[in-house]
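Model it.
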Amino acid sequence: MMTRLGLRSVEDLFRDIPQGLRTDGLDLPEGVDEMELRRRLESVLSSNEPASRWLSFLGGGVYYHHIPAVVRAVAFRSEFATSYTPYQSEVSQGMLQALFEYQSIMAELTAMDYVNCSVYDYSTALGEAVLMSHRLRGGDRFLVSRATSPERTDVARVYARGADIDIDEVGYDPESGAVDAEDLESKMSDDVCGFYFETPNVFGALEEGWKRIRDIVGDRVLAIGSNPLALALIRPPGEMGADIVIGDAQPLGVPMSFGGPSIGVFGCREEHVRKMPGRIIGMTEDEDGRRSFCMTLQTREQHIRRSKATSNICTNEALLAVAVAAHVATLGRSGLRRMALRNIQNMKALSEGIDALEGFEAPAFQAHHFNEFVVRSSVAPEDVNRALRDASIHGGFPLGRWFPDLKDCSLVATTEMHSPSDISRLTEALEGIR
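Modeled.
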């Protein structure tokens, strides 16, 4: 290799690095065998505090749910977990069928005609929804409920900037946390291509005024975001008149993994399907009449669409889609409903327990909630969290950084993973905070 590169010595490999930036070597200990290395690592790791001692009530987009062992066993079979993500003609029938099942499950949960086999996450799904609304309706303004995670709205603004679309926010009712219908109506104009709101929204509150919203939006595009787990119990967006439905399927079979990766849900009505980003897997027959699966729509720019592509999304979260399908199939209809119901029961038990404490109000918004809610406290949320950490508890997310008018509030989440004793442990720790 040295001869091929025209080098006389190893030193010549590093001649472009200035002498002042070089070192005389690294101060590393002598090498040891595997057994001794394991012994030393275990000694270092023994100083860590066991994760099982800690409780977490953080939410805001990533949630701690139980994932049956069979989900990982299925998703990480070598047929699915490959070093390369197949996305064109090399996709196996097994992967295509798994993605078809994912699409079918999400379409049933959302009550939409079509759901693609995923986009990247909730935020990019919102960005794609803005662009699709512009393609469907025209207009250079898109409205987003302020009761949406600002992180999602910021990503959508990045998407919209390239298409010269302005994103304006619609306020929320200070009592219920729901969309302020009067503010929405006042901001409607001919240049508005669509409106987006969530149920449950960023505060965990369910939107009960959807009928009036649908009337105000009229012939513009209505996009609705939701937690797929909540849809096991609440009215699906398709029945609310949504043209586009987005969300994040992370609560169904996808671990938190320090914040990602996640899996964005994206669905629409049949009449809009050719304007939808991403890919759709369809069921067909081969030349021998056997059931088979194929890519029915693939509207990315690298394929035949070229400049007419609806999106530059490359592949998708295919492996996570397999995990989601495996999780829902494992639980079944009744199991999924029980899981969702447990989240509501825990939310109610925890909110009532916190509300009974002096100096706390929960939930701060008068609405029905799913698995998270806003807590208002007389002590600053940051100070509350510092005190909770002494009890090995991660408290809620301080909302002041997102919503200045809620600087005395935090977002608390609970799932089926919290036992009654876990809930008691949090309320007892809060009781001593003044």
